[in-house]
Amino acid sequence: MVYDTKYHLVWMQKFRKWVQRQDIPKRVLEIFSDIAAHHGFEIQELRVAPEKKGVIKMLDFTFVFDLLNEEQKSLVALMKEFCQREVDRKRMNELADKPVPPNATKKDLMDRIPWDIISKAHDVGLRQVAVPKEYGGGGYGDRWITMHALAEAAGYYGGKVGRLFTLPWKHCSTLCYAPKPIQDEFFPAFMKNRKTLFAASITEPDHGSDLLMPYDDPSVGKTIGYKDKDEWVINGEKMFCTAGGVSDYIILSVRTDKNAKISKAMTTFLCPTNTPGFSVHRVNDMMGNEVPSNTQFLFENCRIPDRLRMTPVNGAYEEMRSRLAGKSLHFMTFLGESQWEWEQMRDYAKKRIQGGKPIIQHPNIGMLIAEGDCLLRTLRLLIYQDAWDCDRMQDKQGLVSPLGWWYVNFWYKKVIYRLIEIGHEVYGGMAPQKELPFENWVRVNMSILHGGSTGSLSLVKASKIL
Ligand SMILES: Cc1cc2nc3c(=O)[nH]c(=O)nc-3n(C[C@H](O)[C@H](O)[C@H](O)COP(=O)(O)OP(=O)(O)OC[C@H]3O[C@@H](n4cnc5c(N)ncnc54)[C@H](O)[C@@H]3O)c2cc1C
Q: Which of 83, 25, 7 is nearest to 340 (CA)?
């Protein structure tokens, strides 16, 4: 009896990014050949399949304009694969919607966080893309473009998980222009710890928009720090801090000159949240809660060493404005999720039959679906343009102009308000039903509409520097 047994083996490794490196495909072929020789197998064909191009459908914009190089594209593909494998949208929504009372404990807040996903994201290198190369991080050219493309993919494929990426990317980007000793202390610790989270705090109970307004009011800002030998003693209250209750560090901006105009009075520190005198005072229960939750702090003689001061004394204003520009990363991940949401809406309109045909074929509905697509495209263009500018127009210190961010902030809100209106027309009575993802998406977007001040105030700020 004669046997002729043939096997077709397809080996799919978990993450492709590293395997695309030049030396690895060659070595893989050698290893397979060695194994075959050892066992006396005959290999008829052996090849490493090339990376497929254009797999990220919703990112066609970036492919068309060839904004991304091969490494960036493979990173985006990695984010897609990661989210598809590790992230369950429903689980993320349930975590975000877990009731969060004002007196929630740290444990309650920590229990909302999917630490398993965060740790795995760290293992594959996705959390570290904003860390400078010298500390073992990404070190990609066009860092802002790379992070924005990844943010969009995270929002599109992973929904609310996107913020768990954009928070560390934004804050690591801020630390990139902190003094070297802070970077030397912070980045290695971040690279080692698979779960570090951080937050940024500017807003106070009595001062929100006016902390960053060009009116430059000297009465603004009640949280005060004064210097005592080599420490800063901080007293006061901060408000609305995203992820503040689950973070290891807060990038904290406070008034350090009691009397000066606010633009000449603020200093930024890196405040470890285990510093005595720092406490979470209240948790804000928002209508569209986010997974990392939102908190209010008390500083009671909280002593931060001068070595953790990130800006010149009273010189934080430009840094704060530049730092807020990094918020467009958050809006990019929201855009990714909104793109997914729009696709749900379009598909619903194709399936819902009224008047004898799918409602998308009624011109009033079809036009709305097309308008939503058009608006999202304009928003995407604007955000990528901002990212492009940030990559090219950083000053020596690494600071960027906030102009693009102000426009993104204004336009995002316009687009989202209109999409919410469109969704209510398309879904009709189904719109507020919790069984559709639309209801949750509306709540979250209504909550973040005030994030980083209103769109109209953004235009006021822009008008001052045009
Ligand atoms: C979901 C969410 C997340 C947030 N995360 C953070 C965070 O992580 N860290 C942080 O520091 N803050 C955070 N914030 C706070 C946010 O930045 C502030 O809400 C924002 O700056 C507005 O401040 P406010 O809420 O005090 O509103 P106010 O400043 O009281 O403004 C109320 C209204 O008055 C208008 N207004 C105020 N001042 C002026 C003026 N001088 N001229 C004209 N109009 C004016 C405003 O446009 C607004 O319409 C968050 C907010 C939200 C909703």
A: 83
Q: Say if CB 106 and CB 245 are below 8 A apart.
A: yes
Q: Which CATH number fits domain 325-465: 3.10.20.90, 1.20.140.10, 3.40.50.10470, 1.10.600.10?
A: 1.20.140.10
CA-proximal residue: ligand 1, atom 51 (nearest): 451
Tens of pLDDT, residue by residue over 83-124, are 999 999 999 999 999 888 999 999 999 999 999 999 999 999
CB atoms inside a 10 Å sphere around CB 6 = 6
Mutate to test the pocket of ligand 1, among 240, 406, 464 (most ligand atoms within 8 A of CB): 240
Mean pLDDT check: name the lowest of 137-141, 157-161, 233-237. Answer: 137-141
Domain extents in the chain: 1-50, 325-465
Tokens representing residue 195 in the block = 């779960």
Q: Ligand 1 centre from 293 Cα, in Å?
A: 17
Residue 320 Cα to ligand 1 midpoint, Å, equals 15
Task: Sort strands 357-358 and 353-354 into parallel, antiparallel or unpaired.
Answer: antiparallel
Q: Which of 76-90, 204-218, 263-277, 408-422 has the lowest mean pLDDT?
A: 204-218
Share of the chain above pLDDT 70, in %: 93
Ligand 1 atom, smallest distance to 205 CA: 26
pTM over 0.70: yes
Q: What is the pLDDT of residue 26?
A: 75
Q: Which of 170, 198, 204, 209 to mutate to test the pocket of ligand 1 (most atoms within 8 A of CB)?
A: 209
Q: Is 437 exposed, middle or buried (0-12, 13-18, 19+ CB in 10 A)?
A: middle
Ligand 1 neighbours, Cβ below 6 Å, are 199-203, 208-210, 213, 215, 240-242, 286, 294, 447-448, 450-454, 457
Q: Looking at the predicted structure, is the pLDDT value of residue 9 above 60?
A: yes
